[in-house]
Amino acid sequence: MADSGEDRIAFGSKGRYAANIELAEALTPEEQEEPLQPMRDVPTPNQKTIADVVAFLNIDITKTLKTLVVRGKDTPLVALVLRGDHTLNPLKAAKTGLIAEPMTLATEADIASELGCKPGSIGPIDLKCPIIVDRAASVIKNFTCGANQDHLHFANANWVRDAALGTVADLRNIEIGDPAPNDDGTIEIRRGIEVGHIFQLGNKYSAPLKATVLDAAGKSLTMLMGCYGIGVSRLVGAAIEQNHDDKGIIWPASIAPFEVILIPINAHKSEAVQAATDSLYNQLCATGIEVLLDDRDQIRPGAKFADAELLGFPHRIVIGDRALADGAVEYTDRATGSTEAWPIEAVVQRLVAHLRTPS
Predict the structure, then answer these.
(1) Which helix (H) or strand (E) holds 12?
(2) C-alpha distance from residue 220 to each of 200, 209, 215, 217, 247 (Å)
């Protein structure tokens, strides 16, 4: 999970269900229990959107229906009916098999020609095109909807009595607080980074290729196929999202671009610092440790430390005259921020222990 992720993930509060927002199933709510009211005409002059109608009539948006008209696969137009506050999911709509691909909204001219009104007044009653009704919209009673006449809506309309229900399908985006599939509590939605995926290919490729195997009885069967992949470049972003602080990156040692950074202090002025730094650098390289030497002479020590924290090297060794006078260097663990003096002769051994011992 990461706020910078490009994917929105819906998951159940009990932890058993998760799906990309594009695919997460929105369940059918319980049918409302209330007596049916007589349908009546309601003038809505110049109210073109569901938000306009709700504000103009001062009604609950959850008791309204909106009708979106798209180009059909086998018919000129198809109407998609949703609750007023819900959002159409184009991928789900495409799965109905009734709309043209890619999904395209009908133009105002198409709607006027085929249905005889403008988009702002469309509703499911006596509509002259196929209708697909979202699950949540299918259980509303006494709803307000377009009357298929400009500047007019119906109030207290009901399915079956006033409008044929038609095809019911899951058409909308799932929302926070919706019941989760598989009795998994309620839906929560967060952003995430997809670092791996699985595709179930079935026999899409094996059947044309006649890729078969023999079962235990010697019968020839077409193989079922699947594939999976890891998004290597996405792992970088995911790792940083999960390993950082206000100073910068905290790389896990296993994927850090460098495991150790050596920072000499005023090496251009001190032969002892330069000699100790060169010796440590060569020893670390010889053991296979990936080490970066920050030998920039014109950069102040504080700026070097800040850069090292920003870039997130797991281990930092600072070599300076003061510590060398006691036969030591300064070691800092990037993850914990702890700093301690290490005997210079023990540096390589301790780093090897840190980096090569399984955690």
Answers:
(1) strand 7-12
(2) 21, 14, 7, 9, 61
Length of the chain (residues): 359
For residue 175, the Cα-to-chain-centroid distance in whole angstroms is 14
Taking the C-alpha atoms of residue 173 and residue 226, their distance in angstroms, rounded to an integer, is 27
Q: Could you report how far apart the first and last alpha carbons of the chain are, in Å?
A: 24
DSSP symbols for 234-300: HHHHHHHHHSEETTEE---TTT-S-SEEEEESSTTT-HHHHHHHHHHHHHHHHTT--EEE---TTS-
Dump pLDDT digits (tens) for 89-145: 999 999 999 999 999 999 999 999 988 888 888 999 999 999 999 999 999 999 999
Say if residue 308 is exposed, middle or buried (CB neighbours under 10 Å; 0-12, 13-18, 19+). buried
- Cα(80)–Cα(171) distance, integer angstroms: 8
Q: Give counts: helices (H), strands (E), the chain.
A: 9, 21
Report d(CA 81, CA 331) in Å as an integer: 65
Q: Is the peptide bond before 301 cis (omega within 30 degrees of 0)?
A: no
- β-pair partners for 196: 230
Task: Compute the distance between CA of residue 340 and CA of residue 330 in angstroms, rounded to an integer.
Answer: 6
